[in-house]
Amino acid sequence: MQLESMYQEIILDHYRRPLHAGLRDxxxxxxxxxxxxxxxxxxxxxxxxxxxGEPAVADVSYEALGCSISQASASMMTDLIIGKPVSxxxxxxxxxxxxxxxxxxxxxxxxxxxxAVAFEGVSKYPARIKCALLGWMAWKDATxxxxxxRGDTPAPGTQAEADDDSGEQT
Amino acid sequence: MTAPDQIMTxxxxxxxxxxxxxxxxxxxxxxxxxxxxxxxxxxxxxxYLDSANTSQKPSQVIDTLTExxxxxxxxxxxxxxxxxxxxxxxxxxxxxxxAQFIGAADETEVVFAKNVSEAINLVAYSLGNxxxxxxxxxxxxxxxxxxxxxxxHSNIVPWQLLCERTGxxxxxxxxxxxxxxxxxRADELINPKxxxxxxxxxxxxxxxxxxxxxIAARAHAVGALVLADAAQSAPHxxxxxxxxxxxxVGFTGHKMCGPTGIGxxxxxxELLEQLPPFLGxxxxxxxxxxxxxxxxxxxxxxxxxxxxxxxxxxLGAAIDYLTAVGPDRVQAHExxxxxHALPALAEIDxxxxxxxxxxxxxxxxxxxxxxxxxxxxxxxxxDDRGVAIRAGHHCAWPLHRAFGVQASSRASFYLYNTHDxxxxxxxxxxxxxxxxxxx
Lengths: 170, 439
Description:
heterodimer; A: Sufe protein. Chain: A; four-stranded antiparallel sheet; B: alpha/beta; Aspartate Aminotransferase, domain 1; Aspartate Aminotransferase, domain 2; seven-stranded mixed sheet
């Protein structure tokens, strides 16, 4: 059945018990992203730290209102990227974007994406891709702002891509 | 309006579902809509419950479009050849059909636009142009425009923009808990400063049918104009401009068995004469000099450039179709589906209907939320079972905020829907609750 290919158990698990949820202080940048087609929204905070001379993700906290796909995606994302250097986290983000734009044709890199490979089924449904990307785009936007605050140069492509699929930003 | 016994499409085919009997023959109607016999999502029969979004099209309309392009295609009002004469006659013939369908004084009161959004924007920009020219209909700082909280974005945003351009103030009626307009402050909201009241005839989310005539009486008493957004009511043949009370009415073809890209703005003749043009260009002029122009009389004053000709002709065929079926029977059928659906939905634990829970003064759209199942997830589960509904805020974000919900699911019925399809919806919702572990 096609439904199970989208709503894999691991996705439903994250939806029911989202990881790292809630907004935490202190933070370096906060963004609010909206999916204007359905009204789903996420408020997301990023805290950066220094790790061996490069910026790393100290914490990502969020409050999300939305469907199971957007909530599970935000949950998995935070679990994947908290603790990673920003540059590595951006690689994960790029791979996730590639997966979501693949219409189910990608062979996702499981080393990078971990449980998030389960979103392969979602990529077959064009109407749901934005749901899956909402949290990721918010994170990229917040990270770009946090890096700019610190005087660091945003990672290549960060801002341009963040505008691509993130919907309205307020 | 009485339905003729049998309407012929321009293709010369009788409308198969025609006749004047008491009840709608749904099986015969369904046979007119080719798309209803296709399957979706791996062989499941299509259960189309999204007609408030866009309706499906009967073969009478599809054939008319094909026949127009195959036999009569030419530009209108300017081609000096036989095809041009035929195309012009078909286009202007469609205007006459629209006029008769809504009880207009004559066809010069019928302006074609691409949809309701354009029809409303036409009025808003025309009023803005009147303001810039200090014309009689122009707005002044402190003037007020009144809308309602249950409007579609297309009856909110154009007025916000007009207010920004003119310094007028936007005000609105709120909505009661049971999904009706809160008219308790009507005398304060509609006052001598009010210049225009724009209100949905039927809510696209709640299904509520609003008392336009009552609101219009109040508005006219203070000298304000009234626009009715009839996008959701015209498809059911409920628009009679002689009794509706509005000065301007907008509706769109694609929600009433017609093609996309064609809509209607009806206006009282003397008002259309007063309103300045919206879009300038070919065919809307009387004379053009290098420094100024004079304009054609309405409706052509508002139809710049080559119009969606085939689509207008297709809308005419859709009106023929609905007229032959009989608007009264379309409405009766939808009310019957509502009386079946509302209690069946209300029985589902955790399901909350937004809007009137009884089939009184409400049309065939039902929006609802299901505790623990996001509307997007619900529509996905239903889609997997072949049931097409809409999920989201349905272009009525402020209304959803008023109800304290982020989004909702909407099932909407039309003349081709059946009891079995309502049951498929109910079964699908129960299945979704199990799937997401909330029942």
